[in-house]
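Message: A physicist's question: would you kindly supply an amino acid chain plus fold tokens?
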Amino acid sequence: MEIDKSIKQISIFLKSVGIIPLVFFCILFIFLLAISIQRFLIFQIFYYDFGIFAHILWQGSRFQIPYINHFVLGKIMFLGDHFEPSLLIISPIFWLTSNLIILSIQQGLVTFLSSLMMYFIALKKNIHKIASLIIVFLFVVFPGTTNPLLTDWHPESTAGLFLLIFIYLFLFTKKRWLYYLIAFIFLGFKESNSLYLIFTLIWIYILTKKKDALILSAISVCWFFVAINILIPFISQKFYLYTPEISLSPIRIFSNITGNPMKIQYIIRSFTSFGLLPFISGFTLIPVVLDLGLKLIPMKTMFDNFTFGSHYHVYLGIFLTLASITTIAKILVLKNKYLSYSIIVVCLLISAYTARKLTSSPINLLINKTFWIELQNPNKSLFDLIEKVPKKGSVMSQNNLLAYLSNRNENLILLTPKYENFNPDIILFDMSPDQNANNHWESNWDKIEIIKTKLASDNKYSRVKLSNPNYFLFIKRTL
């Protein structure tokens, strides 16, 4: 009897969800998690930035005030780099396990949940299930959505989920206190998020005329200027590091954009990634234009990136997808269904071509044999090396290895020939040939040779015997 009841409940659930959406999201869930953990398993995540954030979250989970060693600002409390207090709501993840792979899993999971939120928003716009799945496909195919899973760990993917939850609550519910709370959490993931919330609220206000959009915009403006002009300089005791170089001359701005082929490509490929659908989305295009302007207008920023190969394009992917939802909703009400479906198919083909040939979207990994082979073959020798490192003590190591030692309270320092200035308890490096250049970022082979030579004659440290002669582990004799 109970079995029959359970079968009936499952049948009702499958009927309400639909077999096709269920299969689609199951495949998507597996794929996004695979992308996120594959880099971890083959030791291609780095202290900058996976290790930095992992160390912040780890210290927070142990109820310590998180400090980081910044390559420009030195040792500072974490809020002195970017103002990101909301990071601490993720810290309890390390109550579940001390294994750092949990952070890669978390990033894959929030990207999957963002995809679900896009699906729910599309359904709320009276778009049928298949068209809603097409929208999710466009969202995931956009490299700005999935490249963060290949480039360490950053808060943007998590913050993007909160932005989508905020939009859903604001547009489709009356839970005022809840969308205010979500808005503040989103703001707390980075000081610049206030700008993206303002971009969103301009569109929302035009759509709804709700005063809450104006109130939250005013709060966002205050948050931004207080964070960059007062809080960050006060905490770091230094200047705000990320102020872009901006010209007020319209001619210079225009020539700066049109004279840079990468910026032109960035604009074109942003739209072709969505089959050009956002172009006719009306007011929903406003956040897209403002986001593009924020990236393209500055003459120079600390991290110029117009290739989608980083975490800087998560919000653009969200805005472009929302614009595509608006356009598809318009297309589907056309009386000529053959025409409407033909337009959607053409847009899908444009998106697929862009992903395959122009933007190198991570979606291509779905059919990449090497990717799936590497996923099943973790770098066991390096994991064994990490296991031999004492669980306590400050560590100096190279960019990739240091990331895997972030689950400790003590100081973490990138490898330098002047190691005596930092007095680390443990020094670890790998001199195997043919490594990824990022492994030794902020260092090089000549510097590592100097470190190796100095440590060989340094009586304060003893070398641990390891089976691989290319691995070097030195421990302070007093440890």
Summary: The chain has two domains: 2-44+82-370, 380-476. The chain is about 55% helix and 5% strand. The radius of gyration is 24 Å. The beta strands are 67-70, 74-77, 395-397, 412-414, 426-430, 461-463, 471-476.
